[in-house]
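Folds abound. Consider this:
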Amino acid sequence: MKLKTKLWILFFLTVVLSAWNFEHRSKPVVYLIGDSTVDEGSGNNGLWGWGKYLCRFFDSTKISIKNYAQGGTSARTFYTGGIWDKKINKKGMWDTVSAKLKKGDYLIIQFGLNDQGLIDDSSRARGTLRGIGDSSLNIYNKVTHQNETVYSFGWYLKQYIRVSKEKGVAVIICSSIPKNEWKSGKLIRGEEGFASWALEVAQKEKVYDIDLNNKVADIYDKEGQSAVSSVYHISKDHVHTTEAGAILNASLVAEGILEMHHCPLKKYIDADPKIIYLTMTVVKMFFSGVQKEISYKK
């Protein structure tokens, strides 16, 4: 083969590879971090997290979704690693995610359920101090066998936000989904204050927020305890959701993004009402034994 021909082939391959790399690198990524209700889940007992289904509402040819949520974690332990980073987690946690973030990406955060736990117990040690202030507590962590300074729930959220902002990443804070717990015929909302604290941090740090706790709770109250317990949850578990519940929660996250003002992420959502309608139709198929039909509409 003549040298001139070889050079043309080399030039052509260089152009093609450069174009592919440019397209690949320019495709933004939505990173998800959170607990098991965001994690994709294993399907044990038919339970899943909403992060598994969020991709159904996006145009995958223009944006990618990477789910790094880890079951069992809190805002604190996802940040520090703890036992999950060494024994359970296979994907990596905040150190891994923060290293991957680049300008133009998005970070969706949902914590607050496991943050309600104990701070220094010998099994998980995942609780955070309540509130969003800068208070702290020095403890000996019986799980990691190390001294640790524990901060408020809001403090940990601020660390995620500030690192992301420095990298040119847009942040969306979701208040945690509610548990399937009721009182006097109404769902108990707020997650002991953690839901409102998440939104308060988002407002103070001037990032996007989705009040997922109330969005879900509004639908639960409308459907009633019996239907919710049969459709979105199982009797043995009042925290995690069935596939129907996970799809519902994912659709509400997508809806929340569409409702945001001046959020560029909304342009990547396939907002065709037919698709959302079909998705909710799939949800209905999961509880054919329940007579009451879901009344949620996009």
